[in-house]
Write a structure and sequence with these properties.
Largest sheet: 6 strands, mixed
Radius of gyration: 23 Å
Cofactor: Zn(2+)
Shape: globular
Oligomer: single chain
Pfam family, one: Pepdidase_M14_N
CATH class of one domain: Mainly Beta
Protein name: Cytosolic carboxypeptidase N-terminal domain-containing protein
InterPro entries: Cytosolic_carboxypeptidase, Pepdidase_M14_N
Number of helices: 4
Organism: Rotaria socialis
Strand order of the largest sheet: 2-5-6-8-12-11
CATH architecture of one domain: Sandwich
Distance between the termini: 36 Å
Structural class: mainly beta
């Protein structure tokens, strides 16, 4: 069997078959092929980790020597670096010498240079209460001030549509300013952010003093999937009623039409009271909107709208579709 060929008889389980197709789709196999000589099957899930290095790294030869004799990958023909799968972990692959984990990001993605978010995990004292769905499923009522319509957060990574390579910390240039700057201490504009693991807010448009339209970033390397959301809010005024409307969902139905609520997390409440994620929101409605589909197709877009009052000033809040459990958490 020559390099580049694969013996399909070696795929002995649906998992192996699925993982080969999955990895091939996302760029781990380049078409030049790697033959598994020693074992005849694919590495375990713990071994399937991209070992792409920074483009300016000078450790290519050292890494090749490090894996020589240890990897089950054929060395008959050297694969391109972003397609190589190492046999095991190293500090550049995500596991540090002290055992901590650093996720690798696609090179086009901006990642905040902040400590990894660690929400406290607490079980609700009582079963989560559903809300009573509204009988009117039409568009939510906007704020009175229709003259306000300005982009207050804008971030969309310029990807090529497929996986190229990854890097700890993502984009080499770091993060540009995606949110607006506050004019003064009286400015009530919400400061949005989502450039952290599993965050996916793409754009926020202010349409009223406390009213915002939100666009989710599409799941990477998919056909514009949106369902999950997870983002951060700051500069919130306690006691004010805010409305948030996510406007680019694709599913015609949603659990939000049957009583589910979004999740909210308060950093101050977590630190002072030990309160973790909670369900929140009023006036929750999921409905078909009249926005054009991004691909100019006949598909429709749907909106999720809810209102919320926040308990604390000078707090940091998070909204999420469900309890975040990131890749780093899994590791």
């Amino acid at each position: 069997m020559e390099v580049g060929e694969f013996n399909y008889s070696l795929i002995s389980s649906p998992y192996d078959s699925f993982m080969r197709k999955h990895l091939q789709h996302y760029g781990y196999f380049s078409g030049r092929g790697e033959v598994i000589k020693k074992y005849g099957f694919f590495p375990s899930k713990s071994q399937l980790i991209s070992s792409s290095s920074d483009s300016d790294s000078s450790s290519s030869d050292e890494e090749n020597e490090k894996y020589k004799g240890k990897s089950s990958i054929s060395d008959t023909k050297q694969p391109i670096r972003q397609a190589r799968i190492p046999y095991g972990f190293n500090s550049r692959g995500g596991i540090n010498d002290d055992g901590s984990f650093e996720p690798r990001w696609p090179i086009e993605v901006e990642v905040l240079n902040e400590p990894r978010i660690k929400h406290i995990s607490t079980s609700p004292a009582q079963p989560e209460i559903f809300f009573k769905p509204m009988t009117n499923t039409g568009p939510a009522v906007r704020s009175n001030d229709e003259n306000i319509r300005r982009i207050v957060y804008d971030y969309s990574p310029e990807g090529c549509g497929y996986f190229i390579r990854s890097r700890i910390g993502g984009n080499r240039e770091g993060c540009r300013q995606a949110a607006v700057s506050l004019r003064n201490s009286e400015d009530t504009t919400v400061l949005f952010e989502s450039r952290f693991e599993s965050g996916n807010l793409m754009k926020a448009i202010q349409v009223g003093e406390f009213d915002y339209e939100l666009y989710l970033r599409y799941d990477l390397y998919t056909k514009r999937n949106t369902q999950w959301f997870y983002f951060r809010l700051q500069n919130i005024r306690a006691g004010k009623r805010y409305r948030f409307t996510i406007v680019n969902f694709f599913k015609p139905t949603s659990l939000y039409s049957y009583g589910m609520k979004p999740l909210i997390y308060s950093v101050l409440d977590a630190e002072d009271k030990g309160i973790g994620w909670q369900r929140c929101g009023e006036d929750i409605v999921y409905y078909k909107n009249n926005l054009p589909a991004p691909d100019d197709s006949s598909s429709s877009l749907y909106s999720l709208s809810w209102t919320c009052k926040f308990p604390n000033n000078n707090d940091t809040y998070y909204f999420a579709h469900c309890y975040p459990y990131t890749y780093s958490d899994l590791q």
